[in-house]
């Protein structure tokens, strides 16, 4: 039958009766097209998405990425800003502060693989919609928390849920752009990440000085830091509602064999970008990558080889779904993907451990620095890093042992704490403007290699910081270079792995990175109680060690 079909298509295209008979009897084709002219041959995804153009739709995507990226960053970062001001309300120890910084990452680690599997089997859009809406519920729950245990629980659940949409967002955005714009879009997302980090201290600056302290429903004590958390939950809610209006990724639809739906999405993108009718979209058919659907009358069939009858779609059991998922993951455990993925995972672990440990403890360190300088304004004492760490440890201990006297007044956070964090975040934001030029000059691999080396040296340099200006400068450089290196690694992951595994690989890579962030934030308060040297040795060692391994590959 396959040979007859090929003859009918290639030698007798004008005979309608023979063509109709051939179509009605064929359900085994691998490529479907409406016509047989050379101009209308099936297109692969890159050709199809490039033909849809770059315009208004892509701009809408980048605008939507702003609240979505803010939601991702807020979920893992907000705790670091409330620690100095919520210390008395929640009776926090240094270990408690480390747990609050780390608990969101713990939830992300637990949910990494399930979210990746759902994104690759159920679709990108459904994960983005439900993920962000459920995340907003958890953030609003944390805003109403009355004690440490309640806050940890909601932050863990928030991390558990936000991990899905945060990883899928990268895949969704890259799959909505052609090869020419893909890397630039990821860099723009990196700038949005930096902008979100910059927005947080600004929100804290506006919120924390306010005298908001009241009782809600007769039993819920609400303070200014809880209003801050409530505001930080709005991006999640907005993102979930907007994503309801967005289409599914055409790349995902093609991978599932749903070419008719993928073509409709591409036509809609073309219409929005160009302002022309959908029918003017130059691509009329797509290469069929997944199991074939039933042929439609009037279609010409290109059959490459005889294949067994496609099974009818039926509702699969949980065990069958798990078996299918494991089969899909099988290439991950064989060359060349195995060694490539392991390198990505270890690099992500090291970079997140070093970068996010310092980044999440900077608000606490800057708050202690501001308080120390205020107390020693007359004697002009030097605010070295070791002095600030000792002061922070002693002050937290005093709050626990002498709670009534230490917390008799409402905490008054110095303006310098906000300004210092804004400076660090602003440096990270503007650093991304130079990232594209640096990548073109040095290459992505060199940028990643040098980034690991530079961040390792800067981490060691923080130990020798002798004043607040030097601490701010080193911290700004550390966060900026580390952030660019992380973005370049994620861009490599998206481009190196096939579509069916892409979300899963990104999810596992992010899981490893968050395991590093979890480890670093739990170890940091323990190490600073041991001494000044150990925490900086930890963050520098992992970066320099990974630099040495990566540079020898």
From TrEMBL:
Subcellular location, principal:
membrane
Q: Which chain regions cross the lipid bilayer?
A: 57-74, 99-119, 126-144, 150-173, 185-205, 225-246, 418-435, 447-466, 472-497, 526-549
* Transmembrane is among the record's keywords: yes
Under the heading SUPFAM superfamilies, the entry gives: MFS general substrate transporter (SSF103473)
Give the subcellular location.
Membrane
**Where do the record's region annotations for Disordered lie?**
1-24
Indicate, by first and last residue, each region the UniProt record lists as having compositional bias (Basic and acidic residues): 1-17
* UniProtKB keywords: Membrane, Transmembrane, Transmembrane helix, Transport
The cross-references to InterPro entries, in alphabetical order and at most eight, read: MFS, MFS_dom, MFS_trans_sf
Please give, as recorded in its UniProt entry, the membrane topology of this protein.
Multi-pass membrane protein
Which intervals hold domain Major facilitator superfamily (MFS) profile? 61-553
Query: What is this protein identified as?
Result: Organic cation/carnitine transporter 7
> Which species is listed as the source?
Drosophila arizonae
């Amino acid at each position: 039958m396959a040979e007859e079909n090929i003859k009918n298509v290639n030698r007798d295209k004008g005979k309608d009766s023979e063509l109709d008979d051939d179509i009605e009897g064929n359900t085994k084709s691998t490529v479907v097209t409406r016509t047989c002219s050379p101009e209308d041959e099936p297109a692969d995804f890159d050709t199809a998405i490039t033909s849809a153009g770059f315009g208004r739709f892509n701009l809408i995507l980048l605008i939507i990425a702003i609240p979505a990226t803010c939601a991702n960053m807020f979920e893992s970062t907000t705790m670091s800003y409330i620690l100095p001001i919520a210390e008395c309300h929640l009776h926090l120890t240094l270990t408690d502060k480390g747990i609050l910084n780390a608990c969101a990452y713990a939830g992300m680690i637990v949910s990494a693989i399930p979210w990746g599997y759902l994104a690759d089997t159920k679709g990108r859009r459904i994960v983005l919609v439900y993920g962000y809406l459920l995340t907003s519920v958890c953030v609003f729950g944390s805003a109403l928390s009355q004690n440490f245990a309640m806050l940890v629980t909601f932050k863990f659940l928030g991390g558990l849920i936000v991990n899905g949409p945060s990883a899928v967002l990268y895949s969704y955005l890259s799959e909505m752009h052609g090869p020419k714009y893909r890397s630039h879009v990821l860099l723009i997302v990196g700038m949005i990440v930096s902008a979100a980090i910059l927005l947080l201290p600004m929100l804290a600056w506006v919120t924390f000085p306010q005298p908001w302290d009241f009782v809600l429903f007769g039993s819920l004590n609400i303070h200014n830091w809880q209003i801050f958390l409530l505001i930080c939950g709005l991006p999640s809610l907005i993102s979930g509602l907007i994503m309801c209006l967005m289409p599914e990724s055409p790349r995902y639809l093609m991978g599932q064999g749903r070419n008719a739906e993928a073509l409709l999405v591409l036509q809609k993108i073309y219409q929005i970008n160009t302002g022309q009718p959908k029918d003017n979209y130059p691509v009329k058919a797509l290469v069929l990558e997944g199991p074939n659907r039933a042929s439609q009358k009037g279609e010409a069939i290109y059959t490459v080889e005889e294949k067994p009858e496609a099974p009818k779609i039926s509702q699969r059991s949980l065990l069958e779904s798990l078996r299918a998922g494991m089969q899909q993951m099988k290439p991950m455990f064989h060359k060349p993907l195995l060694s490539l993925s392991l390198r990505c995972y270890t690099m992500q672990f090291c970079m997140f451990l070093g970068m996010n440990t310092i980044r999440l403890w900077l608000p606490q360190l800057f708050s202690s620095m501001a308080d120390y300088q205020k107390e020693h304004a007359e004697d002009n004492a030097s605010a070295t890093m070791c002095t600030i760490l000792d002061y922070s440890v002693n002050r937290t201990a005093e709050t626990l042992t002498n709670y009534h006297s230490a917390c008799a007044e409402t905490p008054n956070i110095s303006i310098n704490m906000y300004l210092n964090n804004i400076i660090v975040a602003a440096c990270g934001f503007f650093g991304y403007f130079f990232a594209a030029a640096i990548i073109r000059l040095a290459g992505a691999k060199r940028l990643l290699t040098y980034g690991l080396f530079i961040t390792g040296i800067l981490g060691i340099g923080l130990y020798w910081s002798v004043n607040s200006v030097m601490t701010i400068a080193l911290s700004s450089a550390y966060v900026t270079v580390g952030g660019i290196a992380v973005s370049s690694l994620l861009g490599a992951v998206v481009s190196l792995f096939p579509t069916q595994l892409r979300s899963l690989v990104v999810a596992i890579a992010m899981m490893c990175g968050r395991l590093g962030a979890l480890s670093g934030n739990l170890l940091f308060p323990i190490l600073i109680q041991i001494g000044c040297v150990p925490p900086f040795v930890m963050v520098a060692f992992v970066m320099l060690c990974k630099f040495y391994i990566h540079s020898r590959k």
